[in-house]
UniProtKB/TrEMBL annotation:
CDD domains assigned to the protein according to its UniProt record, in alphabetical order: GDH (cd05301)
UniProt keyword list: Oxidoreductase
Domain D-isomer specific 2-hydroxyacid dehydrogenase catalytic span(s) in chain numbering: 17-334
Pfam families referenced in this protein's UniProt entry, alphabetically: 2-Hacid_dh, 2-Hacid_dh_C
Family affiliation: Belongs to the D-isomer specific 2-hydroxyacid dehydrogenase family.
Cellular component terms per the entry's GO annotation: cytosol
Positions of the D-isomer specific 2-hydroxyacid dehydrogenase NAD-binding domain: 124-303
Database matches in InterPro entries: D-isomer_2-hydroxyacid_DH (IPR050223), D-isomer_2_OHA_DH_cat_dom (IPR006139), D-isomer_DH_CS (IPR029753), D-isomer_DH_NAD-bd (IPR006140), NAD(P)-bd_dom_sf (IPR036291)
Name used for this protein in its record: Glyoxylate reductase/hydroxypyruvate reductase
Cited SUPFAM superfamilies: Formate/glycerate dehydrogenase catalytic domain-like, NAD(P)-binding Rossmann-fold domains
Gene Ontology MF terms in the entry: glyoxylate reductase (NADPH) activity; hydroxypyruvate reductase (NADH) activity; NAD binding
Native source species: Acrocephalus arundinaceus (Great reed-warbler)
Length: 336
């Protein structure tokens, strides 16, 4: 009897998980209906406080987290040696201390592919909003600034016959190019860790150095991962090489951009406009200088924010977690 009780406790511990936020119901349902899975959740729309995170992860075998949760050595120490699987509800993983996680033999699941289309759609929407000055124009209607038709009033820049530069021709970069091509884009340039001819063929895209992409592009769209090589790459030198009529869009990670340099470029007319779905920090303080500019459109990191996409992400994150706990192949595992 004693041995049976110990076995039951061990089985329960093997499927104990901590979920760091209120996630779409479909994902939580996958976990709660899994045999033997015991779920503890920070049931709020707001991020879990650090103390609650450290307490919640203690003794757990699995952790389902978000990109806003910093999973570092302190969290891993608080979890203890029982932690075997981390599943992040994101395609990005720069919030995870991967070296430390690898050292401890913890498996990691993530959610690529499923948010590609939603993020690409948002990237195009942000580009159009910035280049055609849509928020600024809408505000003129509300404030009474719309008085009569004027030949040069609210003029922006169109995509027809333009050159578009994409930094990072991965899944999202390709999906952005695929959506922009029908607008009549004349030429696609791209840059990254190396040429990707099989990816570029569909768009006739040319692999070029970052400096040339900056100099020749009418529109620059950033869709790369955040790495030591890409951190701060869009800086004073980069913006200084861009055309005065060019538009810059970032839907990757805020830290790819030096925001002070971007502010100077926009404020002094070095580039025409910018659209950002990601910033540093997030949320961006309401008194940040970028928010004072009419030629900068900033969104609250909503690239994947469609109901269908978020539901699919939650289910995938849950299935990654369960597969890892069972010692099975994950639908999407990050190879460390």
């Amino acid at each position: 009897a004693v041995a049976g009780a110990r076995s039951a406790r061990a089985a329960a511990a093997a499927m104990s998980v901590f979920v760091t936020r209120r996630i779409p119901a479909e994902g939580l349902r996958v976990l709660s209906q899994a045999s033997g899975c015991r779920v503890q959740q920070w049931d709020s729309e707001e991020p879990v406080p650090r103390a609650e995170l450290l307490a919640g992860v203690a003794g757990k075998r699995g952790l389902l987290c978000l990109l806003s949760d910093r999973i570092d050595r302190e969290v891993l120490d608080a979890a203890g040696p029982d932690l075997k699987v981390i599943s992040t509800l994101s395609v990005g993983f720069d919030h995870l201390a991967l070296d430390e996680i690898k050292k401890r033999g913890i498996r990691v699941g993530y959610t690529p592919d499923v948010l590609t289309d939603a993020t690409a759609e948002l990237s195009v929407a942000l580009l159009l909003s910035a280049c055609r000055r849509l928020p600024e124009a809408a505000e003129q209607v509300k404030s009474g600034g719309w008085t009569t038709w004027k030949p040069l009033w609210m003029c922006g820049y169109g995509l027809s016959d333009s050159t578009v530069g994409i930094i990072g021709l991965g899944r999202i970069g390709q999906a952005v190019a695929r959506r922009l091509k029908p607008f009549g884009v004349k030429k696609f340039l791209y840059t990254g860790s190396g040429p990707k001819p099989e990816r570029a063929a569909e768009f006739g895209a040319e692999f070029v150095p970052l400096t040339r992409l900056a100099e020749e592009s009418d529109f620059v769209v950033v869709t790369c991962a955040l790495t030591p090589a890409t951190q701060g790459m869009c800086n004073k030198d980069f913006f200084g090489r861009m055309k005065k009529t060019s538009v810059f869009v970032n839907t990757s990670r805020g830290a790819v951009v030096n925001q002070e340099d971007l502010y100077d470029a926009l404020a002094h007319g070095q580039i025409a406009a910018a659209g950002l779905d990601v910033t540093t920090p997030e949320p961006l303080p309401t008194d940040h200088p970028l928010l004072s500019l009419k030629n900068c459109v900033i969104l609250p990191h909503i690239g994947s924010a469609t109901y269908a996409t978020r539901n699919t992400m939650a289910v995938l994150a849950a299935n990654n977690l369960l597969a890892g706990l069972r010692g099975e192949p994950m639908p999407h595992e990050l190879k460390l």
